[in-house]
Amino acid sequence: xxxxxxxxxxxxxxxxxxxxxxxxxxxxxxxxxxxxxxxxxxxxxxxxxxxxxxxxxxxxxxxxxxxxxxxxxxxxxxxxxxxxxxxxxxxxxxxxxxxxxxxxxxxxxxxxxxxxxxxxxxxxxxxxxxxxxxxxxxxxxxxxxxxxxxxxxxxxxxxxxxxxxxxxxxxxxxxxxxxxxxxxxxxxxxxxxxxxxxxxxxxxxxxxxxxxxxxxxxxxxxxxxxxxxxxxxxxxxxxxxxxxxxxxxxxxxxxxxxxxxxxxxxxxxxxxxxxxxxxxxxxxxxxxxxxxx
Length: 293
Description:
By secondary structure, this protein is of the alpha/beta class.
């Protein structure tokens, strides 16, 4: 699918691509230049830029592979790891096809539905869906988060290929990452302008968190700082209903209200609930039969 314009939005916080002066590796220099050119972000040397948020390379003692990370004053580096960490744990212990998220995607008679994740964020839900065999296009409007996703996908694929795919788990992981693709764009604009052919559009609008545990606080805070409060979920839902071929699925806190649209009759056809979350399902065929879309 054709990518929309990737120029930074004036509503996004200032971001710079940095290269640590103590790291003169050729890979870091090449990657920094490529990201700077692709996303039209300034290139700075070292952690001296005045940008509120900075993208640079981070390494850990237990894992020397360089990871693109978001640095900000309020937290440590935030990066995406599609092979290990929380995503690996969720893949092995998340419940498989029985998960409410997976069940909400539905079934087609002849194939698995294609999915567009309109609020990709750190890629957690997209990864779960890809692990169950769905083809998922992630759309993310934050330039910084899109850059993290792209780095995580590229790094994960390269690491798996370099491993020689010696076992079934590595082969399965590569298949999952091959099921994921990425576009950096405002999702509503992308849907209305590109009109992609996709069965299911999934959206998880940013919702005020009443409680944050230690495991999610850093990533959630980074996302909130980047994307700000959710002010356009109704516009995105409207665009999704005009685009999806099969259904639109909206993730909400269990007791949160539905997203209100101009037409008060446009309400979910069904929902699937878990202890803390509700998935509102808008069945396109039923809504069209009722003359609502």
